[in-house]
Write a structure and sequence with these properties.
Strand order of the largest sheet: 9-7-5-2-10-1-11-15-19-20
Distance between the termini: 30 Å
Bound molecules: inosinic acid, magnesium ion
Strand content: 15-25%
Helix content: 25-40%
Mean pLDDT: 94
């Protein structure tokens, strides 16, 4: 294969799970590089459906090593639930590895996440309430607890006691919440440590070994470009870096080790949580997209806000991630529509702009400028090649590709593995970095 990063180009929920599942078949190692249990993908094994938040779906392939990298935040309780659920279904989890440098989500992170959201009132962010922001905040503030701190029996007590004492003051004085019992929490996490011990490793070293043995590595991002802490719609973002650059930091490898970057884009756009969304549809079309696309959060069950494809954020995602190609998902959700709009630019204070504004308040004032394309009004779910698609559907895809100046390698037309068109080999097909595109143009 090669070393490939798969990222979301929108606000998450682009269907990365299906695309990484597809690519995991030819991978030797899958690395999750950021985020925590705020993410979620649905996996179907032997007709049984369950939801994974931390463990890469690559675990379902017996030949794939799965690594939860240093850039993630790990809630051990939920991770153990996922391990137990997989084992109960006969899926071996002995090839799951966890970076000892990843940070641990503690019970106080969850309480603080929920309490802080409640206090923000109309300024709320719409977090998943899973303690993600507070865990990363402690990491940056250097008061976090890492997996190693949880593992080491002789120092665990002291590290936990100090951290819990600090946080109990915040829980009690700032949020009027009951304090956490330090000794009970230490005992609880000592139990998690024993359960997880066989899986804990130096992840960067293991990934380096895989690179040296020319094994194929898939770096799987959670959330999406516009939820990126640095490059997303701040403050309505998550607290990590889902963008392609985040893969190097979160896995512990250098940028020269990456061969390819694939962006996953839904054929329309959704967003969960608060924040600006120029192409949002609050009418019957939005409802239809939500129904046909089953747009409910995997983690929180919240209905997702739905809207037309936004080419401005698409172009932005190509730039921020240096995308080589796109995987367009859920094209079939548009099957019934007589016409389909695509946002090609924004109107901002009477001017037309084509570049995504980095100031989120400016972004909130942007209004979409649409081009309207004809729909195809027939089912595409059975199509297995571009040629089988209605001509109008092909035109729609070509329009997106031209707008974003990046080739479409994969088209997904339903949840199952078979409902996929491989337009061009995403791994071995021509690489279309910016330099190559410029060379082609000159
Ligand atoms: P947090 O990551 O729980 O702090 O939530 C911050 C924002 O990111 C909220 O708008 C969430 O809805 C959004 N978010 C976090 N994880 C996901 C995801 O996996 N898919 C979509 N949105 C997400
Ligand atoms: Mg999701």
């Amino acid at each position: 294969m090669a070393n490939v990063i798969v990222i979301g180009t929108q606000w998450g929920d682009e269907g990365k799970g299906k695309i990484t599942d597809l690519l995991s078949r030819s991978a030797d190692v899958v690395v999750r590089y950021q985020g925590g249990i705020n993410a979620g993908h649905t996996v179907v094994v032997n007709d049984r459906t369950f939801k994974l938040h931390l463990i890469p779906s690559g675990i379902l392939y017996p030949h794939v090593d799965c690594i939860i990298g240093s850039g993630t935040v790990v809630d051990p309780e939920v991770l153990i639930e996922e391990l137990d659920a997989l084992e109960a279904m006969g899926v071996s989890t002995s090839r799951l590895y966890i970076a000892e440098t990843a940070h641990v989500t503690m019970p106080y992170h969850r309480s603080i996440d929920i309490a802080a959201e409640a206090q923000r009132a109309e300024h709320r962010l719409g977090t998943t309430g899973r303690g993600i922001g507070p865990t990363y905040a402690d990491k940056s503030e250097r008061t976090g607890i890492r997996i190693v701190d949880m593992m080491e029996n002789d120092t665990r007590g002291a590290v936990f006691r100090w951290a819990i004492a600090q946080k109990n003051r915040i829980l009690e004085k700032l949020y009027n919440l009951p304090p956490l019992d330090p000794e009970a929490t230490i005992a609880q996490y000592a139990g998690y440590a024993e359960r997880l011990r066989p899986h804990i490793i130096d992840a960067s070293l293991k990934i380096d070994e895989a690179i040296r043995h020319r094994r194929n590595i898939l770096f799987e991002g959670a959330q999406g470009t516009l939820l990126d802490l640095d490059h997303g719609t701040y403050p309505y973002v998550t607290s990590s870096n889902p963008v392609a650059g985040g893969a190097c930091i979160g896995a512990g490898i250098g940028p020269t080790m990456v061969d390819r970057i694939i962006g996953v884009a839904k054929a329309y756009v959704t967003r969960v949580g608060e924040g600006p969304f120029p192409t949002e549809l609050q009418d019957g079309v939005g409802q239809l997209l939500g129904q046909r696309g089953a747009e409910f959060g995997t983690t929180t069950g919240r209905p997702r806000r739905c809207g037309w494809f936004d080419g401005v954020i698409g172009r932005y995602a190509v730039r921020i991630n240096g995308l080589d190609c796109l995987a367009v998902t859920k094209l079939d959700v548009l099957d019934e529509l007589p016409e389909i709009k695509v946002c090609v630019a924004y109107e901002l204070d009477g001017q037309v702009i084509r570049d995504f504004p980095s100031n989120a308040r400016t972004f909130a004032r942007c209004r979409p400028v649409y081009e309207t394309l004809p729909g195809w009004q027939q089912s595409t779910q059975h199509c297995t090649s571009l040629a089988e698609l209605p001509a109008t559907a092909r035109k729609y895809l070509q329009f997106l590709s031209d707008l974003l100046e990046v080739p479409i390698a994969i088209v997904s037309l339903g949840a199952s593995r078979g409902q996929t068109i491989i337009v061009e080999d995403p791994i071995h097909g021509p690489k279309r970095g910016l330099l190559e595109r410029q060379r082609e143009a000159s």
